[in-house]
């Protein structure tokens, strides 16, 4: 029994980052993704593993299907969310691609766009683009025909093609972020506008938290004015750099406590999306996410 459980643990640990990466991209939530991974671990323990030909195929299938189910119920819950909803940022300092073979569908702005797809469409796109699963493998996971899967992925690509712009590299992203923060802190509206695109949008995720804008702010001048409107907002904050969703972002602290995460989306034309996460539960999830690969959920109870 001990040897069998050790083998189960070994197989799960080997693929855990991938499982989290799949669930996170489908759900846009660190907490919900961890819950899915926890449930998959429980199912994996109870499964007759002697008949499982490919552990990674079994685990990936279970993760994807559970994530789709959770995404369907999450969509209903988000209808009552107050103000803009943003995906929960995930700390990628230890795993820059969050378990994927490619980093696709990881930046916060693209995860937000993925919300426009149905959960099944999102899963098919993520499996193909980020994890390089073949069409027959995706068909097996989603229990659809290969022809249907090809159509879903193609349709999803077309729907997304007009949305995300080609991202700048990490160095240019950091330069634009630094320029934005420096100009905002000093109230330099002209310098701030210089790094924003004409159609830039600012989104504040606070779920009704006081001080968080409840509607998107659109346009270069309006976003620049919003970012500089309250000088004490910057003056009373301490700033630190973090790695969120594969990009450098800013964590804001007040009296030593984290109060906001600022991240941007940028193309060659400049910053086209400014994203503020004020929701305390999402900040907490980000801080907790750094340790997600360090332990296997429920392992202590499994041995106990």
UniProtKB/TrEMBL annotation:
Residues 13-71 form the RNA polymerase sigma-70 region domain. It comes from the Bacteria. Keywords: Sigma factor, Transcription, Transcription regulation. The keyword RNA-binding does not apply. Belongs to the sigma-70 factor family. ECF subfamily. Pfam families: Sigma70_r2, Sigma70_r4_2. Interacts transiently with the RNA polymerase catalytic core formed by RpoA, RpoB, RpoC and RpoZ (2 alpha, 1 beta, 1 beta' and 1 omega subunit) to form the RNA polymerase holoenzyme that can initiate transcription. Residues 109-160 form the RNA polymerase sigma factor 70 region 4 type domain. SUPFAM superfamilies: NTF2-like, Sigma2 domain of RNA polymerase sigma factors, Sigma3 and sigma4 domains of RNA polymerase sigma factors. It comes from Streptomyces mirabilis. InterPro entries: ECF_Sigma-70_Domain, NTF2-like_dom_sf, RNA_pol_sigma-70_dom, RNA_pol_sigma-70_ECF, RNA_pol_sigma70_r2, RNA_pol_sigma70_r4_t2, RNA_pol_sigma_r2, RNA_pol_sigma_r3/r4-like. This is RNA polymerase sigma-70 factor. Gene3D superfamilies: 1.10.1740.10, Winged helix-like DNA-binding domain superfamily/Winged helix DNA-binding domain.
